[in-house]
Specification:
With 391 residues, this protein is an alpha/beta fold. Helix content is 44%, strand content 16%. The protein folds into two domains: 132 residues, Alpha-Beta Complex (Aspartate Aminotransferase, domain 1), CATH 3.90.1150; 232 residues, Aspartate Aminotransferase, domain 2 (3-Layer(aba) Sandwich), CATH 3.40.640.10.
Amino acid sequence: MPLQLLSQRLEKIQHDGLYRSLRSVERTTPQVFVEGRQALLFCSNNYLGLAEHPSLAQAAADAALQYGTSSAASRLVSGNQPLHAMLEAKLSAWKGTETALLFNSGYAANTGIIAALAGRGDIIFSDRLNHASIIDGALLSGARLIRYPHNDTQALARLLEQHQADGLRLIVTDGVFSMDGDIAPLQGIADLAEQHRALLMVDDAHAGGVLGHQGRGTVDYCGVTGRVAIQMGTFGKALGSFGAYVACSRLVRDYLINRSRSLIFSTSLPPAVLAASAAAVELVQAEEGQQLRQQLADNSNLLRSLLQQAGYKVPDGCTPIVPVMVGEAEITTRFSTRLLEEGIFVQGIRPPTVPNGTSRLRCTVMASHSPDQIQQAAAAITRIGRELGVL
């Protein structure tokens, strides 16, 4: 009977056009194989193309040979190795903070940070389009969760006035929103945090390596360096590795070491991953990193321009996330399937990842795409959009 109930629920997911399955994808370069079918990859977060960079691969291989394949324990037991401290030092220097602390993934970081900082009697103010891991962290915390309209600083100001607390008030926002590619108005949010004596946390997963001087992210890009208490970032996107971190003060770091369950109770990141991440942090600050960011910006502008010229209402922007709005989940799935048949791999994004009625193709570009590849993708999206009545 319990399994029959699960079967019925799964059938409803299929009926609603929301069924998901795992596809085998070989490699992370623009030219990939999706379950044996050759295609151009336009749905990866490997924005700078570092996931197969020789310097990262060599650093990982050298570390594995020298230190082994695992830390074999949490950092509070026996898994705290010199490579962890080395990477945290590089991160804090890059981000301009007192210190940094590593986590095993972006999801583990957000849930671990938020649930550690806030609790009963505290209030969390969260952008309505924040990543699911932020929402889950808020729910785990037991604090009161208040979601404000997307990027609406006036609404946030009203909510901060209305909802006072004797305890902590925490404002959390994505820096770059992963499904729309737009940027949070951090100047206004930082002003409100200071005015209302609230703690400000920015999830910069999709901006690290991409925006700001030396790829420092939206905090640098928006000119609020030194005004954001907690900067969360990841290595698994533009930095081409794996894991996550928080760049923060020593006080926040010490507090998280003592209270963050996802840190305390997890085996720490392995040596190969740490070394690859350190190589990536160095690379994005070097001349090659600047060149890759410029190429990424050029590629992003090209795809946006081609889709806008075709008639799509693609928003202007400076990030590599280019959403093509479709609307209905079932049509979005068909769109993605047809594109793959034409040799373009773009995933359709549907509820609950995005609100009902806003299903879309989440196109992402990489610095390693050629102009011809971008033109090929735009032509296919245009042709199939007309075929399905989307355009």
